[in-house]
């Protein structure tokens, strides 16, 4: 059993119980970690506090508001976190957004502003959050983000998000080099397709899921809990020699040719 007792994990991107970040939070909590859940807007405050309670952390943990596209909110969130927890060990970044049109439309038609938003929220935020967290990660630790194979191969309807995920994965490598001297590891989990809020409204999502069932070595789709288990491993000391890495949790889909 992985023991995360005495460790504090800050998790960005829990929208609801289907969120990949929620499954990661469940695994970290079960291993004994204390959780800080960060939610995007006031609208999600009550839900976030309920989710914290459902993880058995309403007394021990904390819910903080943070829109990752606003520097002042990132500063305020980490100031609030530092007030309760002077040392943080794990940060989970499970956030992505592109304007609906941009993700749907042919990449050739991507508007400058939509490209900017996709990269600001889905890529730059990892840098901003890592910079905010680093002073609190004084004992070293682990930063994790979530990516998708659309960074490397073309998937219809992924478009500008594929470009952003490629940049995110490069960011993981550069941040790993930057934070390595502080013994802070930076890694990404590349999850297979999962029906979450972020997958809703994606055209032909069931075609994507069916292709995995047909072609992936395990002939099934991955579950949130499996991504959670790998995230727990990467957050823990068992992964002390792993940094700058992209770990696939996709039932093997990425190794297949045709
Ligand atoms: P989700 O909708 O549950 O999570 C996305 C989160 O991003 C939400 O909590 C949302 O509040 C947050 N967010 C968006 N804009 C934000 C902002 N400005 N500030 C703060 N938070 C913001 O969906 P998910 O599928 O759990 O997605 C989480 C991560 O996993 C994303 O990076 C996604 O690209 C990645 N991923 C998802 C899949 C999949 O098939 N679902 C596969 C691989 C990777
Ligand atoms: O990263 C993602 C999707 C992230 C996402 C989703 C939305 C929908 C609503 C970002 N921005 C928005 N904007 C919205 O307005 N995934 C990995 C999930 C996903 O999306 C796909 C996939 C998979 C998997 C699109 C095409 C093919 C596969």
The gist of it:
By secondary structure, this protein is of the alpha/beta class.
* Coarse structural class: alpha/beta
- The average pLDDT value, as a whole number, equals 97
The percentage helix is 40-55%
CATH fold field value: Rossmann fold
What characterizes the major β-sheet?
7 strands, parallel
Number of domains: 1
Strand order of the largest sheet: 3-2-1-4-5-6-7
Bound molecules: nicotinamide-adenine-dinucleotide, ligand 0WE
According to DSSP, the number of beta strands is 7
CATH class: Alpha Beta
Description of the molecule:
- The chain contains eight helices and seven strands; from the N terminus they run βαβαβαβααβαβααβ.
- It is an alpha/beta fold and 258 residues long.
- It has one domain (8-255): NAD(P)-binding Rossmann-like Domain (Rossmann fold), CATH 3.40.50.720.
- The chain has a seven-stranded parallel beta sheet, with helices on both faces.
- β2, α2 (45-54) and β3 (62-65) form a beta-alpha-beta unit.
- α1 packs across α8 (224-235).
- The radius of gyration is 17 Å and the shape is globular.
- The protein starts with 7 loop residues before the first strand and ends in a 9-residue tail after the last strand.
- The mean pLDDT is 97.
- It binds nicotinamide-adenine-dinucleotide (NAD) and ligand 0WE.
- Ligand 0WE binds at residues 96-98, 100, 103, 148, 155, 157-158, 161, 193, 198-199, 201-202, 208.
